[in-house]
Each structure stands twice: as C-alpha cells, then as structure tokens.
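Entry type: protein chain
Record version: 2
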Amino acid sequence: MIPREIFKQIRRIQITTSRLVSDVFAGQYHSVFKGRGIEFEEVRQYQPGDEIRSIDWNVTARMGQVYVKKFVEERELTVIIILDVSQSFSFGTVNKLKKQLAAELCSVLAFSAVKNNDRVGFIAFSDRIEKFVPPRKGLRHVLRVIREALYAKPIGVKTDLAAAIEYLNKVAKRKTVTFIISDFYDEGYKKALAIAAKHHDIIALTITDPRELALPDIGVIKFDDAETGESFFIDTANAALRRSYHDNSSAKLEERGKLLSSLHIDHIDIRTDIPYSQSLVRFFRAREKRMR
C-alpha cells in the first residue's frame, strides 16, 4: 500500500512538471528526437505539383489513372529512462535529495515523451536491476513511472552501471532514446556503455550536490558512506584537506566528462543547487543547433 504522502508527492510532481513540459520542453523535445524515418501511409490520385518519382506505377497501371505514394514521418519513439536508486542518491544538502530531483527529471522526460505520442519504459537499478517497466503510452503509464521513481525501495545499496546498461541491451531490441540518470560514481561500465551507444541514442544526466565538490569550513564532522556503511570523521578546518577533497572531486568529474565525450554521448550536468530546467533548456538548444 502506497502511503498517502507519496500520492501527494506524485500529484505535486505531475502538476509542476507537466506545466513545465507544456511551456518549455514539448516543442524542443519534438525537434531534437527524431523518429525512425519515413513511413508509407497511402496512395492517392496524382495532383499537379506531385513529384514524378512518387508515382506508384503498379497501382497506376491497374487503375488506369495516375496514383502517387504518400509518405509521413514515422514519429513514434521508444524512450527508456534508467534511474540510479542506489544509496548514494539518498544524499542532498541543497533544496532536495538527489533521488527527489531524479524523480522530477523522470517526470519531465516521461511527460515530454508521452506528449509526443512516444512510448516510455523505465529501469531502476542499484547493484542489481530493481525494477523494469516495459514501454507503453498514456498518462496512466507515466504516473506509474513517476510512482516507481519516487517510491523505489531498493534491495541493493551499491551501484552497478554496467549491469543496468547490459540489461537495456537485452530488453531493447530496437533503437531507443535512453536517458541514464545517475551520479556515475562507479567503474567498469565503459565497455557496456560503448556497446549500447552504437545501438541507442543515449543521454547521460549526472546529478551532483555542491558538497560532493567542496567541503565547508565547519570543523570536525562525521561522514557516513551510504553504500558501504563505513563511518569516519573529517576535520574540515584543515585547509589542505579541503583543497585535496576539491581536487580529487574535480578530477573525478573531469574523467567522467571525458569518458562520455569519448563515446559521443550527450551529457547534461544537473546540480541540486541550480534549477534543472536551466540545464535541460541549455541541452535542448545546443542539440537542436547541432542538428540543423
């Protein structure tokens, strides 16, 4: 039984993100994510101005009048949202936890897809596959995806990106637009990601909290590693320690960015201290410009 509070959160996210989709993202989503190509729709009688190469000679010969083939863009896409629900997402020091922000991102992407008549699927993962929702259309289905993202109760605590990406390759036989929402704090996933990128249009949404980049000078504080259960104390008054922490964190983010770029994977940097709408708009505009 889902708690009433979760239903309230789902409703709030639905209202907030559906308005955002209608006002900002719907048109841009349509323009940057293309369908599978051109699809035959019907034949009709020739009209002045029609191209000669569109004439259907078989039908023309059979009917005794000139007929042409009519084609339309095959718009329908399959969108897969892969969500990290490991314990590292139960962290956040500004505005909201990373997992709450991730649920809103899922909602924006799912509503954008359904508004364009695309199918949406969902994969939640930790160090195992926690949930798979096969792609479907419709508002009710989108609300289920939001519920699964918001109400996830993972069994695993660690992160296995490679397993999640390999699972995508198993369940998605045709090309998809795949959004991976994670902090990418993992290793050994490059090979799986490279294989997936050859078959799917993959976009990485990395969520970062400012405290993962820099420590405040507030004296001795206790840290609990959510994925390992290890606890330790750090003296944040130590300037050298703060500098080392910042340098190591920056190096990890730079390495992550280089890996995604080397595989030609689009990357959206989401911060818990910056409205995610800004980051998404910037991505859509850049991709739209690149595709012209």
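Comment: The CA atoms of residues 14 and 107 lie 7 Å apart.
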